[in-house]
Backbone:
């Protein structure tokens, strides 16, 4: 009887010891998050890791998954990372073309004076408040580097 109680106690102690050795979700999450680059969110539930956020390319996505899988206690990895879309370069019109197009865009606004310098359109003079939005839309469509609005609004 004593032997049976002793063996039962030993089995319970061993089970508790082994169960406590298993990494906790919070520990796994902290370890994986520390190794992942900024912008990646790590969530762990019962040893299953979910990665979310944006990365630059497929290689970064695969590397993030590899990092998570290498952590002790991880059962599986759900890679929900998205790849950032490539941004098209901004095209800025040349001054000669821009000057001609600005003159065309402002011909209906006789009180507005314009100057183009290094891709920047400088507006001076006067304009009615109702016409300002229309003028700015026309000028923005020409893709200048910047529009400096020094207009007096009536």
Residues:
């Amino acid at each position: 009887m004593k032997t049976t109680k002793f063996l039962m106690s030993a089995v319970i102690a061993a089970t508790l010891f082994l169960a406590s050795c298993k990494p906790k979700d919070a520990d796994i999450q902290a370890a994986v998050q520390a190794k992942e680059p900024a912008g990646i969110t790590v969530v762990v539930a019962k040893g299953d890791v979910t990665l979310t956020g944006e990365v630059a390319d497929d290689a970064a996505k695969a590397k993030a998954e590899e990092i998570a899988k290498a952590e002790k206690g991880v059962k599986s990895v759900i890679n929900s990372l998205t790849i950032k879309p490539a941004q098209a370069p901004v095209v800025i019109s040349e001054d000669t073309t821009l000057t001609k197009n600005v003159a065309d865009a402002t011909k209906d606004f006789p009180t507005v004076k314009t100057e183009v310098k290094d891709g920047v359109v400088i507006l001076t003079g006067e304009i009615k408040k109702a016409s300002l939005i229309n003028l700015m839309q026309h000028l923005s469509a020409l893709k200048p580097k910047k529009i400096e609005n020094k207009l007096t609004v009536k």
